[in-house]
Amino acid sequence: MAKLSGVQQKIMSFLLEVSLVQGNNSSGPIETAVLSKYIGASYGTTKTSIARLVSKGFLERQKGKTARGGYIDLKIPEEIKEILIEQKQSMVKPY
């Protein structure tokens, strides 16, 4: 599996949490600017990281909206989501 940068890991972690809360694999409409503020990265870095995650196969871009008021809609492929959930559970330490 390809290595992810810190920003890419933050994006994947955020999108995993969103997908678990929503009960599906899609982020739903989200503005790149909002995502960049949440993960603490610049807008440009966030856009580049998303493009690289898509090219690596970690994310799929769904139909979004460009221009003013635009948004992106990202989907985590099921096999990637399962791996992320396994990794998250292995990091949780029992009391």
What can be said about this structure in brief?
It comes from Piscirickettsia litoralis. Helices cover 56% and strands 12% of the residues.
Describe this structure in words.
By secondary structure, this protein is mostly helical. It has a single domain (6-89), classed as Orthogonal Bundle (Arc Repressor Mutant, subunit A), CATH 1.10.10. 56% of the residues lie in helices and 12% in strands. It has four helices and two strands. The protein has helices at residues 6-22, 32-39, 43-56, 78-91; strands at residues 60-65, 71-75. It has a two-stranded antiparallel ribbon. Strand 1 (60-65) and strand 2 (71-75) form a beta hairpin. Helix 2 (32-39) packs across helix 3. It is globular. It starts with 5 loop residues before the first helix and ends with a helix. This is LexA repressor DNA-binding domain-containing protein. It comes from Piscirickettsia litoralis.
Secondary structure blueprint with pairings:
Blueprint lengths: L5 H17 L9 H8 L3 H14 L3 E6 L5 E5 L2 H14 L4
Antiparallel strand pairs: 1-2
Helix pairs in contact: 2-3
Organism: Piscirickettsia litoralis
Protein name: LexA repressor DNA-binding domain-containing protein
InterPro entries: WH-like_DNA-bd_sf, WH_DNA-bd_sf
